[in-house]
Hints:
Elements: H1 6-18, E1 26-27, E2 30-31, H2 33-41, H3 55-67, H4 70-73, H5 76-85, H6 92-110, H7 115-121, H8 124-133, H9 136-147, H10 154-170, H11 174-195, H12 200-204, H13 206-214
Antiparallel strand pairs: 1-2
Amino acid sequence: MNDYTPEIRSKLEHYLSTHTLPKGMGNEESACSIAAINLAISGKMTDEIPDCMSEVIGCATITLQDAMPDDMRNSARYKAWLPTAVGTGRDREQEQERLAILMDWMWRTVLPQLQPLADEEGFGKEWRTMCSERTQEAAYAAVDAAASAAYVAVDAAACAADAAVAAADAVAADAVAVAVAVAAARAADAAAYAARAANFWQTVDPIGVLERMTNLEGKS
């Protein structure tokens, strides 16, 4: 079923208001974000992104919902956003715009959170260059610089490099858009671990980037 009807949306909103969203897929009594959507659409417990939903948003949601704290994933704001993401579709131009929003968030908001760690451990210059140049080469330079000083930052930079590589091909291949979304979201997850800051997720605001990817300017 590709149509996101008011009835299905109502089912999803009811489920969200009466159930807890877990980390991981969960079960029918406590299903993850995508599984909750599928329960409303078809009654099936699956984490396959439905056809009526942006694949970019879906992939980012799967990774970010697992990474963010439980209280954020079950917040009123997140549960109000999720039903708005379902009928977003897969228009090629809009998917590219969503990728651009996600990538900008990764470079501009997420990775700079590790700058104090990079400065302290002696690879601040390479980290700052990576965040400003936003290239595969700069990201791998940051990986090399961090490897001997603060290994916890390596995964974040490596994911950023993967995202940069995939983004270069995303215009030509829809499937690559999935790789970009996953890599960018994983960079945020890795950065959260490296930063070890209690307020990391509040600062980078993953719900905000999901909202911006959903509510594109000029989107009907």
